Amino acid sequence: MPEKTLFERIADREIPADLIWEDDLCIAFRDINPQAPTHVLVVPRKPIPSLDDLSEEDGPIVGHLFLVAKTIAKKEGLSNGYRTVFNCGSDALQTVPHIHLHLLGGRKLGWPPG
Ligand code: 5GP
Questions:
Q1: What is the mean pLDDT of residues 86-98?
Q2: C-alpha angle 74/77/83, rounded to 5°?
Q3: Residues of 22-59 as b/e, b for ≥16 C-beta within 10 angstroms?
Q4: Domain ranges of the chain
Q5: Candidate list 39, 98, 100, 102, residue with the active-site label
Q6: 3-class DSSP assignment, residue 41
Q7: Is the entire prediction scored with pTM above 0.70?
Q8: Residue whose CB lies within 8 A of the most ligand 1 atoms, among 4, 33, 39, 65, for a mutation test
Q9: Residue 64 annotated among the catalytic residues of the structure
Q10: Distance (Å, rounded) from C-alpha 91 to C-alpha 41?
Q11: Best of 95, 99, 103 to mutate for ligand 1, by most ligand atoms within 8 A of CB?
Q12: pLDDT digit string (tens) for 27-68?
């Protein structure tokens, strides 16, 4: 068995996190180092390392992550808007090699990102 990723360990309750969503395909929890009043990570149970590793068969999973992000944004009251981000690879500062969708909102966000 390959070693579990950090986010698999969160899904398996081996590492505590503020979990706000759970279903068959994904979990969502608050980022430990929030960059906005709402900063949630939506993570598939399948440990796909990054966007670069996605295959055609993963399309429904990725679609599901966005639908969950939209639902959470509504629950969090982000009626003025929000941002969703997949960081991919070292130039984008991806630090956890288990694909995750950042959901950021609750303040005016800058563009372009740093
Ligand atoms: P990345 O830089 O890979 O796109 O995003 C990884 C995110 O995971 C970062 O925003 C970081 O703060 C968050 N993170 C790293 N370790 C933990 C943890 O143990 N718990 C939680 N809740 N978030 C984490």
A1: 98
A2: 70
A3: eeeebbbbebeeeebebbbbbbbbebbebeeebeeeee
A4: 6-105
A5: 100
A6: strand
A7: yes
A8: 33
A9: no
A10: 19
A11: 95
A12: 999 999 999 999 999 999 999 999 999 999 999 999 999 999
Asked if 52 contacts 88 with a C-beta cutoff of 8 angstroms, the reply is yes
Output the CA 96–ligand 1 centroid distance in Å.
7
> Hey, what are 31's tokens?
């980022």
Strands, DSSP E only, in 6-100?
19-22, 26-30, 38-44, 82-85
Q: Give pLDDT, residue 114.
A: 84
Give the list of residues 6+ apart from residue 105 with CB closer than 8 angstroms, or none: 36, 37, 38, 73, 76, 78, 80, 81, 82, 83
Helix (H) or strand (E) holding 54, with range, is none
Q: Count Cβ atoms within 10 A of the Cβ of residue 65 and give its class: 0-12 exposed, 13-18 middle, 19 or more buried.
A: buried
Per cent of the chain over pLDDT 90 is 97
CATH architecture of 6-105: 2-Layer Sandwich (3.30)
Joined tokens for residue 35: 């960059």
